[in-house]
Design a protein that fits this description.
The longest helix has 26 residues. 45% of the residues lie in helices and 15% in strands. It contains 22 helices and 15 strands. About 2% of the residues have low confidence. α13 runs antiparallel to α16, α13 crosses α17 and α14 crosses α17. The chain folds into three domains: 203 residues, Rossmann fold; 76 residues, no CATH class; 146 residues, no CATH class. It has a five-stranded parallel β-sheet, sandwiched between helices. Strands 11-12-13-14-15 form a five-stranded mixed β-sheet. Strands 8-10-9 form a three-stranded antiparallel β-sheet. The chain has 581 residues and is an alpha/beta fold.
């Protein structure tokens, strides 16, 4: 039977970035977490150009549209009635509905090659111009100004066959946003606010497709003309994911203020605070979800405080109100690919593998993080560039920093640890030839307490892994192959709960499974000539000496399965000892 009581409450705005639609009283009526004081904070700051970088799905587009709806000349004042910003009456009189607004969204400015990306950029600019059809009737625009408007409106019709024609087309693309602000100022006799969403998407998509340099040059020209010495500009706000602007992208732009989120006021305006989540859960009568959300989704840090990804929160609350409390899904990590993580795995040396496993298990690692990051750093700065990009993208959080530049990093939350484990499985399958069926069989055999089946499945996996790895490493075997990677064979939801201790030739893993049992695995490298059986015994002795089973029993595990696993290249041996209360 359908529970119609859920329709007595407001809907949750999953994937809705239109501010007017979210806050209006029309059907459906959406639950809105009030972020309107962001408007006050930004305008009172007074900077000419603001750049606010945050990870994906953190409400950037909705907040930018809120700013648009507040500032634009055709504002609907009723949309802000009852919101916090409405309490500042003098501020609202001075700023609400007082500006022409040019709102650009670069999320679709991409393509398989540079020409296709330019076409998509031209389309976005033409679309912006099409929404200004009123300019054709303006008494304040002369014939030359109207010709400029028509040129933007028909960018895709410019010839590009010859070299000089292509140069004119590129120049027209670079000038188009500036031209639109100039036309708006002439028409309204007011300075123009420029809002640009996903400012960095054209670059991040160009890099893997091989036309990064051309796109940097194009976008540098756009931003230089639009944001530097533009007399028609009131102020501009840009949002994206990169933590700091590309050094070469904003060359000469000395009026740019970057809200990194490290200590600035914008922290609580992008993401949900715990108080905001408590209010939401009280409204939907689901207070029991808070502890689950803390376990899975807490950990993002901006503005000196901890916030939750809005996409995770509203998705889980919506799931809870429809089907009751249950296990969360992988909401945030499933909204895009994991290219950065795969890039790390493909380049990881022995130390990076060890760090990756530590992060996957909830531990911290110390790295040198670059705050002035460019997309090129993924290659030019090696692993340091990748670690830095993972911080920027939200996969890793900075827990503390030292004066020497080192930062303590950890996986942001349990959802991210799950992603790291899944990514490791995918990498082992795609790059090293491991079969997912063998991985599943290995994990299930461990859970059932069947060491023989586990050994059979693991031997099959190793038979695939070692030849592929040896071929990729020029004939080298165990020196380059770190057994820590084999922890990726465990089910991702197990690894999210794991505790890992590791040394030069050993790895110990402890975790609880859902039926009240615990599992301890001690992994040992047997070297070139040693017998595997005594090495397994040594691993089991180490489990006993470190009292891993007792630790799990103290956490409520009735029984514990203790495995000693020894490796010798593609050979393996698995032994089991059962511990009970």
């Amino acid at each position: 039977m359908i529970d119609f009581s859920i329709y007595d409450k407001k809907a949750l705005p999953i994937g809705v970035d239109n501010f007017e639609k979210v806050v209006s009283s029309s059907t459906p009526s959406y639950y809105y977490v009030d972020k309107s004081m962001l408007i006050y904070e930004i305008l009172q700051d007074g900077a000419a150009v603001h750049l606010i970088p945050r990870p994906r799905r953190f409400g950037k587009s909705l907040n930018l549209d809120m700013l648009h709806q507040f500032l634009a000349l055709d504002t609907r004042r009723d949309l802000f009635r009852g919101l916090q910003i409405s309490r500042h009456e003098d501020f609202c009189r001075r700023h609400q509905g007082q500006y022409p607004v040019l709102h650009l969204d670069w999320k679709d400015v991409c393509g398989e090659d540079y020409d296709e990306a330019c076409y998509m950029l031209a389309y976005e600019l033409q679309d912006a111009a099409a929404h200004m059809a009123f300019l054709r009737e303006s008494r304040n625009l002369d014939t030359a100004a109207l010709a400029q408007y028509d040129a933007v409106l028909h960018l895709d019709e410019m010839p590009q066959e010859k070299e000089d024609e292509e140069a004119r087309f590129q120049a027209a693309l670079q000038a188009a946003p500036l031209v639109l602000t100039q036309l708006l100022e002439k028409h309204y006799h007011r300075k123009v606010v420029v809002l640009i969403d996903e400012y960095d998407t054209p670059l991040s998509d160009a890099y893997p497709s091989g036309y990064y340099s051309e796109m940097v040059s194009l976008m540098r020209g756009i931003y230089s003309k639009l944001l530097k010495d533009n007399d028609s500009l009131a102020f501009a706000i840009l949002t994206g994911c990169l933590p700091l602007p590309e050094a070469s992208l904003f060359t000469g732009l000395n009026n740019l203020k970057v809200w990194t989120g490290k200590s600035d006021f914008t922290g609580a305006y992008f993401g949900f605070t715990e108080d905001e989540i408590k209010a939401m859960l009280a409204y939907y009568q689901l207070p029991e979800l808070l502890d689950i959300m803390r376990d899975w989704f807490d950990g993002f840090q901006f503005g000196g405080g901890r916030v939750y990804c809005p996409w995770d929160v509203i998705s889980f609350v919506d799931q809870g109100r429809r089907s009751g409390p249950g296990a969360p899904a992988m909401y945030w990590v499933n909204t895009s690919g994991n290219d950065i993580v795969q890039r790390l795995l493909s380049r990881a040396d022995r130390g990076a593998q060890r760090d990756y496993i530590a992060l996957m298990a909830g531990k911290s690692v110390w790295k040198t993080i670059s705050r002035e990051l460019t997309i090129r750093d993924l290659d030019s700065k090696g692993l340091d560039g990748i670690w830095s990009m993972m911080v920027a993208a939200g996969y890793l959080s900075v827990r503390s920093e030292e004066d020497d530049g080192l930062s303590e990093l950890s996986a942001t939350n349990r959802e991210i640890r799950w992603l790291l484990s899944r990514s490791l499985q995918e990498w082992l399958c795609n790059k090293c030839g491991a079969k997912s069926d063998d991985m599943t069989a290995f994990s299930l055999a461990l859970k059932r307490g069947d060491p023989n089946a586990a050994e059979t499945a693991l031997h099959a996996i190793l038979s695939d892994l070692f030849p592929a790895h040896t071929a990729s490493r020029g004939g080298k075997h165990r020196v380059d192959f770190d057994q820590r990677l084999l922890l990726g064979l465990l089910l991702p939801n197990w690894m999210a709960r794991a505790e890992v201790q590791s040394g030069e030739d050993c790895v110990d893993v402890c975790f609880r499974v859902s039926d009240g049992r615990g599992i301890v695995i001690a992994v040992r490298d047997a070297g070139e000539k040693r017998d595997l059986n005594p090495v397994c015994d040594e691993a089991l002795e180490q489990i006993q000496e470190n009292r891993y089973a007792e630790a799990l029993q103290a956490q409520g595990c009735v029984s514990v399965l203790c495995y000693g696993i020894a490796f010798q290249k593609a050979k393996c041996n698995v032994k089991l000892q059962r511990r009970g209360r």
